[in-house]
Automatic annotation (TrEMBL):
Organism: Alicyclobacillus dauci
Transmembrane annotation, as ranges: 76-105, 117-140, 146-170, 182-202, 214-237, 244-262, 268-285, 292-309
SMART domains: PP2C_SIG (SM00331), PP2Cc (SM00332)
Sorted UniProt keywords: Hydrolase, Membrane, Transmembrane, Transmembrane helix
Highest rank taxon of the organism: Bacteria
NCBIfam families: spore_II_E
EC number annotated for this UniProt entry: 3.1.3.16
Domain PPM-type phosphatase, residue spans: 581-791
Any one Gene Ontology molecular-function term assigned to this protein's record: protein serine/threonine phosphatase activity
PANTHER family: STAGE II SPORULATION PROTEIN E, STAGE II SPORULATION PROTEIN E-RELATED
The protein's name in its UniProt record: Stage II sporulation protein E
Length: 819
């Protein structure tokens, strides 16, 4: 940052309080931008078409006034000075008249509201028409009217074009992704500025020709499309002033095309190809030495200026052109900056929730101190009521306060121990107090009031504990989000370039590769392709190639494309090795319509699949409402990223607080990892679950009470390694307890499950319900629900493609970490 020192008059002040005042960073950049705007205004004021039409200055002034603001549009007044250098006083007065009339029209037409930018060019065109006719006088010829109409139309068109790109010059453009229409608008504006060099010569070399050649050379950094289209647009505008011919337009267009083709080489080859192409092609139609020499001198001088152009300017221009490496890197840097800022903010939010959780959890008191506080409160209230007018107060509370306090506390203990029976005062209290009867009555009353308050305080502590746990869960989820964003920002650029190189070897050219995660089993890679129908290439070639590079099977998880064509982004993720097929069968008590049981089977989206059964207390709508509330809340918490045990505790506390009635529900849940088939069973007061593996039947049990009964429950977790072909069966108590009393439920279910001959989930679920109903002769004594899940291998969609010249990305990462 630039700095300046302020020198004070006093030497003592210099020694004691000298300061270094930082110069604001925007100062140099702002004045540099102002200088550019002044130069543009001056040259656009000089630009004209055959000295008959000068539409450029007014169009520039109108657009700059609206985009930058009236107070910042003063550089456009330099167009008057430019017009003076070309057409003398008449041209300067006409330009000044146009600018003043536009300001007056702008003020009175759009006085109460800001105008739409699309109306500004029309207003400028009308002002140009009126001012042109006013300068002619009162007698107008047809030629005068036609010229005025032409200039007004050109002002309107140019203003419409300048509107699309003026933000770039005043610093208002916030994105670096420009549409091709905006890029061409910039080219037209710059070409209009180049027309201001017409008529200026240095030793016979036209500055306009040098400026055109230099501009085309600079535009080669944008590639074939930008350089060729820009060269044609620039040369066509000079054609309006007879500074070029159609042949020269074609020559410059081809030279720009050739230069854009060589943009990835160095400047020497670009400038050499430009000079040779323009000289050779000019020699084919020029029949004299002079035009050929002037063209060669102009291109040579332009090449010198091209070599002197800062490399930073080219990189800046490339960063605005979609498809270039600089633009991709610029967008990636911008996304990383945004993600870094977002990560920091999310981490701060996580810390806030964590601090809130700690503040609610840390009350600063335990059960002993709370009980002691309540005793003190009762004793204090009783002493103020009974002992206030007692003649022995001075002796009891002034001289022997501790003895009196302990005597009253022991009496309270006797009252509480007696329950509903008549309590006797303690021996110390009997010897000390002369007003025992009112004292005992007051103590009993205050104890009842305090016990009621204690219950509410306990309820409040329970709610604080619940809130603390929920805030802690939110903090962990938000912290995990911040960690994922941080890991995404650390993705290696070399890995992305290696993937791009491997794709190019297969003949696939993509716009961008962005690595979100390379963690085994959690791979996520985004690849952007230029065409909408890229899914076929993604499935047939890109995914198998990534599978070979990463050493694990990769699948296409998502394809996003813009409406009406355009870039297509495919998301590639680790393919699951297992899949789960589920089915459910249910029967309500006594054949009712509504069952009190609720079930769910859902893909959590992070490689885990959950199957759950909840049994509400009782039957009917009320039980269904409680079990459904438990299942729905649990599913949402887990999909949001909450730890499963914390989610169950949250559901338990919610059921406790939502109703004053005794409503509870059981929960039987299995979490299945689709990458390794490991299952985690969480059983809260539920019936046993069963796993059928061949002829073997494995029972999974738990001993917890149902949720919604106790404030603090211990969530038991049982892990089982599943295999392909395993049949997982979860059921409610209605099915488990279905056999008559002379049957053992475990033995009956093991026998029925072991005799299963089908592996179709729906057939198994239906058969278990039907068998239970038959054992009771068609009677359904309780709600019955069974969920059957079959674990199967996930079929691979393709084989991996391994290229000999492309090393494994995982091995390369290990070598880098080892180094």
């Amino acid at each position: 940052m630039a700095q300046i020192s302020l020198t004070h008059k006093s030497a003592k002040e210099n020694r004691t309080s000298s300061k270094v005042i930082p110069l604001p960073r925007w100062t140099w950049h702002a004045w540099r931008r102002v200088a550019v705007l002044i130069a543009i205004g001056f040259l656009l004021g000089r630009a004209n078409i055959e000295h008959a039409v000068s539409p450029f200055g007014l169009a520039y002034f109108a657009v700059l006034s609206e985009v930058a603001g009236r107070k910042k549009a003063w550089p456009a007044y330099f167009a008057v000075l430019g017009a003076l250098t070309v057409d003398g006083t008449t041209g300067g007065l006409l330009m000044l008249l146009q600018l003043v009339l536009y300001r007056v029209a702008r003020r009175y037409i759009f006085r109460k509201k800001l105008p739409d930018l699309h109306f500004v060019p029309i207003t400028a065109g009308i002002v140009s028409l009126v001012s042109r006719l006013a300068m002619v006088g009162t007698v107008w010829t047809k030629y005068d009217v036609l010229i005025a109409l032409a200039q007004g139309a050109l002002v309107t068109i140019l203003a419409l074009i300048f509107v699309q790109c003026m933000n770039l010059f005043v610093g208002g453009e916030q994105t670096r992704t420009l549409k091709y229409e905006q890029i061409i608008s910039v080219v037209i504006l710059v070409a209009s500025v180049v027309m201001g060099f017409v008529g200026l010569h240095v030793h016979g070399v036209e500055l306009a020709a040098v400026a055109i050649d230099w501009l085309i050379l600079v535009m080669t950094c944008g590639g074939i499309g930008i350089s060729a289209a820009g060269a044609i647009v620039v040369s066509m505008l000079t054609l309006l002033n007879h500074q070029a011919s159609l042949t020269q337009v074609a020559i410059l267009g081809f030279a720009g095309l050739l230069g854009g083709l060589l943009r990835d080489t160095n400047r020497f080859f670009v400038s050499l190809s430009f000079m040779l192409s323009t000289t050779v092609l000019t020699a084919t139609y020029a029949h004299s030495y002079q035009p050929l020499l002037m063209n060669l001198l102009a291109s040579a001088v332009a090449s010198v200026f091209y070599f002197l152009t800062p490399k930073r300017l080219e990189n800046e221009l490339r960063s605005y052109v979609p498809g270039t490496r600089e633009h991709t890197q610029s967008e990636r840097d911008r996304v990383q900056r945004v993600n870094a800022l977002l990560t920091e903010k999310i981490h701060e939010v996580s810390q806030v929730f964590d601090e809130l959780s700690k503040s609610f959890a840390d009350t600063g008191e335990n059960e002993y101190t709370a009980a002691q506080h309540l005793v003190t409160q009762i004793v204090s209230a009783t002493s103020q009521s009974v002992c206030a007018l007692c003649p022995r107060r001075a002796k009891c509370w002034d001289k022997e306060s501790m003895q009196t306090y302990h005597a009253m506390a022991n009496t309270l203990r006797n009252i509480e121990s007696a329950g509903g029976r008549k309590a006797v005062p303690s021996a110390e209290m009997r010897d000390r107090c002369v007003r025992l009867d009112p004292l005992m009555n007051t103590l009993r009353y205050n104890l009842d009031v305090t016990n009621r308050d204690a219950k509410w305080m306990k309820k409040l502590r329970e709610q604080r504990s619940l809130l603390s746990a929920q805030l802690s869960g939110v903090a962990s989820v938000v912290g995990a989000m911040a960690k994922e964003l941080d890991e995404e920002n650390k993705s290696s650029l070399s890995d992305e370039e290696q993937i791009i190189g491997a794709l190019e070897q297969l003949g696939l050219y993509v716009d961008d590769v962005h690595i979100v995660s390379l963690e085994p089993g959690k791979v996520e890679i985004e690849i952007t392709q230029p065409t909408e129908g890229a899914y076929e290439n993604s499935a047939r070639m890109i995914a198998p190639l990534l599978s070979g590079i990463l050493g694990e099977h990769i699948s296409v998880s998502q394809v996003q494309s813009e409406n009406g064509g355009g870039p297509c982004t495919s998301v590639f993720a680790s393919a699951r090795l297992f899949q789960v097929n589920t089915a459910v069968a249910t029967a309500a008590r006594d054949g009712r319509i509504v069952s009190g049981d609720t079930h769910t089977s859902v893909d959590l989206g992070n490689g885990r699949y959950t199957v759950a059964v909840s049994d509400g207390m009782g039957n009917g709508e009320r039980a269904r409402r409680e079990s459904k509330a438990a299942i729905d809340l649990l599913k949402k918490l887990m999909k949001a990223g909450f730890d499963e045990k914390l989610a169950i505790r949250t559901v338990n506390s919610t059921l406790l607080l939502r109703s004053r009635d005794e409503m509870f529900t059981t929960l039987d849940m299995a979490l299945i990892d689709l990458f390794n088939a490991k299952a985690e069973f969480l059983k809260i007061g539920s019936a046993p679950s069963f796993i059928k593996r061949g002829n073997e039947v494995i029972e999974v049990t738990g001993s917890n009470v149902p949720i919604g009964i106790l404030q603090d429950i211990e969530v038991q977790s049982v892990e089982q390694q599943l295999q392909a072909g395993d049949i997982l069966i979860l059921m409610s108590d209605g099915l488990y307890d279905a056999p008559p009393h002379n049957y053992d439920s475990d033995t009956w279910l093991r026998t029925v499950i072991s005799k299963l001959e089908t592996k179709t989930p729906q057939d198994i679920a239906d058969m278990l319900i039907e068998t239970a109903v038959r054992m009771n002769h068609g009677s359904i004594r309780d709600d019955m629900t069974v969920v059957v899940a079959v674990i199967e291998h996930h079929e691979q969609e393709w084989a991996a493609i391994k290229l000999p010249s492309v090393p494994s990305l995982r091995k390369a990462n290990k070598r880098r970490r080892g180094a």
